[in-house]
Amino acid sequence: xxxxxxxxxxxxxxxxxxxxxLVVLMAWRLRTRKNLIPALVGGIAFFAFGKLFASVxxxxxxxxxxxxxxxxxxxxxxxxxYQGIVVALLExxxxxxxxxxxxxxxxxxxxxxxxxxxxHGGIECMFVVGWANLQYYMGAIIVNSGxxxxxxxxxxMIQDMSAMTVPSCVMNNLSGLFLFILQIALSILVFQGVRNxxxxxxxxxxxxxxxxxxxxxxxxYQAKVVPQPVMVVLQLxxxxxxxxxxxxxxxxxxxxxxxxxxxxxxxTSAPEEKGWAFANKKLSNIEENSERNHSKPEKGTD
Length: 302
Description:
By secondary structure, the protein is mainly alpha-helical.
């Protein structure tokens, strides 16, 4: 049996998993006044590369019965490494293509990276937090309904749901929140890599590495090597350096954009200043000439 408190939590967080990314996106939109096209592109990129394209290697290496798939499925650590490598490469490619070819007009603003990351991570949050919690909630209803209905469910699934507690659910959702933040940080790294060819390979490598390492603690937990709280702490340790690096890059982008705006303003105001200086000089010359004419003695008649 699944407790009522757990079921209420699953339902509430399931709904929140869909609402939260939209609230973040609208808040950022109100703060920056930028359009939401990058968020739409980010959501499409995640669905295409993180879901559709990722299903092909999953079918080849996990879904079809062969010795390699048996090894991957039997070991949680190996499965998490496989998942991390495939997802990191495919989603990284999706980010790179999006910034390189579909968001060329928005590449001048650093806000594009944030808005794209919210769209990319937001759709994933809806799957990982929203839909997953609602699935568990519906499964809990089936488990609590009676023995005859539960015969169609796998025994492992029934055991996992029966063992659920509110703290374990909170830690699962913390992992989903960390992943949402990580997606924004990775989007900043790839965005700057696309804009700056000198550090492109390095930043793309960092993005893939951080993304891949984030999945490893989940594999350690599935293999029962570490408990769930340690899994969350390890994921936070992966997120922290990625977030710090992304914040530093974002600040540098902000400084460069402000400097560029200042130079543009000075270049546009320079001709106006020259024009006003010329006009003032001309006016002063006219005034001096008029003063000289007035100062000359008038020729009288005897």
